[in-house]
Design the sequence.
């Protein structure tokens, strides 16, 4: 891949990939300049052309997620938006939901709200010392009134990839809706909704799908019936008093982020042009292994769940012994121009599980397709310098 960050090292790709490919930015700009009208709302040529671009993105992402009906690929603002819509639409008083202690607040907070205000029963399954949830532990929590199992595919904190295919098989056998948060995995590892028995794939566009912020959505399998908790304009069947029942209008409300969705289409084209997710993943994991190995050699550095021989994302969580994570992050930024993310990463239960909650979280390095070996070596040397400083000052 090409080095596009000469003045700094950007290792916060789990938050959002940066930089975005020039092809994506150029496609978005040209689309908005030439066809930036409301798609499908009327029959003039520009609106038709805009709708064709949106349709192209639906079809590309449906194929990308192993779906079968592009109309059931619906767009929203991000994965948090999609998860909130799904959870509030599916879960009713008296229902039971199962999730995990690996989840991001995009799942945890809606579940807490539904538990407190709607009478939904919630079970959160723990993860083991390596950072993995066991499918049999989820199966053991299922009840007669279990309506939904929702699981993060890849942890945004420790990078472990969960066995969603095995969990999906259990849910399918029991007739329980299975939803997956693919925020960290979409564009990194292959996701096939059919083969993995995923009923609803929730995704965001601004991470490894290489699109802009403010994009995301969900793919709803054909056998699944979700009636939304929202309603609004669709541009079709305007005389109806209720939300249109057909997809995609059933799950889309108001004017979409057409420029952003055009960027998602361009992101799909960029991924394909660079060998697909498998080749990109191989490249990123090569850098992640070099990063992990370099950090593991530094005295006073503690790594968390960093066994990259197991299913794992190019994400490494660590702390410098004796230093608050935020202090390490500040030194990385100010003294070494290494950009990372510190704190609880919107996933407090993960930090409780790995013992970093009281330490105010951890430092997270997350590799992207535009990182290079030089970036990795520079980051390792920066941590080595900070760890030496901590040791010299009796902090370790």
Sequence:
């Amino acid at each position: 891949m090409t080095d596009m960050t000469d003045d700094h090292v950007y290792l916060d790709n789990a938050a959002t990939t940066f930089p975005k490919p020039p092809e994506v930015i150029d496609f978005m700009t040209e689309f908005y300049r030439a066809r930036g009208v409301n798609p499908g709302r009327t029959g003039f040529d520009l609106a038709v052309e805009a709708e064709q671009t949106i349709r192209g993105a639906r079809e590309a992402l449906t194929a990308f997620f192993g779906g079968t009906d592009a109309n059931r690929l619906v767009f929203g603002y991000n994965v948090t938006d999609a998860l909130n819509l799904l959870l509030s639409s599916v879960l009713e008083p008296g229902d039971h939901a199962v999730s995990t202690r690996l989840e991001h607040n995009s799942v945890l907070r809606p579940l807490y709200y539904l538990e407190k205000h709607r009478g939904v029963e919630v079970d959160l399954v723990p993860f083991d010392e390596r950072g993995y949830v066991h499918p049999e532990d989820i199966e053991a929590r299922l009840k007669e009134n279990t309506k939904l199992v929702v699981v993060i595919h890849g942890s945004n904190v420790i990078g472990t990839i969960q066995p969603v295919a095995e969990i999906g098989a259990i849910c399918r056998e029991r007739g329980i809706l299975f939803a997956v948060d693919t925020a960290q995995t979409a564009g990194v590892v292959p996701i096939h909704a059919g083969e993995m028995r995923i009923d609803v794939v929730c995704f965001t566009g601004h991470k490894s799908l290489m699109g802009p912020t403010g994009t995301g959505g969900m793919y709803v399998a054909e056998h699944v019936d979700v009636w939304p908790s929202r309603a609004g304009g669709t541009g079709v069947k305007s005389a109806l008093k209720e939300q249109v029942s057909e997809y995609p209008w059933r799950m889309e409300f108001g004017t979409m982020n057409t420029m952003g969705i055009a960027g998602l289409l361009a992101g799909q084209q960029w991924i394909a042009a660079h060998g697909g997710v498998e080749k990109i993943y191989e490249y990123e994991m090569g850098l992640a292994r070099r990063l992990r190995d370099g950090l593991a050699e530094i005295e006073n550095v503690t790594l968390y769940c960093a066994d990259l021989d197991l299913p794992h994302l190019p994400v490494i969580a660590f702390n410098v012994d004796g230093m608050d994570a935020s202090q390490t992050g500040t030194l990385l930024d100010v003294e070494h121009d290494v950009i990372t993310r510190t704190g609880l990463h919107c996933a407090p239960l993960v930090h409780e599980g790995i013992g970093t909650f009281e330490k105010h979280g951890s430092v997270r390095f997350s590799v992207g397709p535009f990182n290079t070996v030089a970036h990795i070596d520079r980051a390792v040397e920066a941590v080595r310098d900070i760890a030496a400083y901590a040791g010299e000052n009796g902090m370790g």
About this structure: Residues 276-296 form the longest helix (21 residues). The mean pLDDT is 94.
